[in-house]
Please model this.
Amino acid sequence: MAHNLLFVDDEQKVLDFVKPFLEEEGYIVWTARNGQDALRIVQDRHPSLVVLDWMMPQMSGIEVCMALRKSSDIGIIMLTARTEESDTLVGLEVGADDYITKPFSLRELAARIRSVLRRIDMKHGTEQAQPIRRGELTISHAEYRVWKRDQEVLLTPTEFKLLTTLADKPGVVYSRLQLLQWALPDDVLNDERTVDAHISRLRKKIEDDPGHPIYIHTVYGFGYRFALKEEKPICV
Model:
């Protein structure tokens, strides 16, 4: 079954350039030129993934991303002309799965979309009968869902992959490069700092006090590991 995509950009020429290409790639593609229309289409049509332009009038792509993340784990790729590291990390911090900078090639765009959709599709191919329990967290690979104290936690595909990679083997230390390769295997920029941004957002969702995490511990200068049961919170 073809995936449904929503591409949001206030420039009609960009939409006219991208839409035919993505349709040739086999996707069903809807377009919008502003944030309000984008939110309406997501609510009515439930696309698998949204590509969001950062700079739009009235409602920015960041604001749309934040609104979506309040109730959805839909795949989100930010499209931005901003090149500063702090700017791109903002997109990841508010819940985007990936970002791509303008000008971009259609080939790179297609690779980014495939990468995020592959992580979403993991829920259809992962075989694990019993959920795993780590402290107050319950993680179901088969249902692609996470609960904390019986309250469901909405994670993005990238956040879910990072959490399951770490939680499946408590105490094992993973480098940032390993996590990048396993959780974001098609990341074109291969930037290990994107892992830090995703971990930061993941901590905000699963930790009572993200500044003193009890689940995901930092191994300074190297990477991360999921804490053993008896370990105490650490400062980050």
Observations:
- The chain has a mean pLDDT of 85.
- The radius of gyration is 18 Å.
- The chain has eight helices and twelve strands.
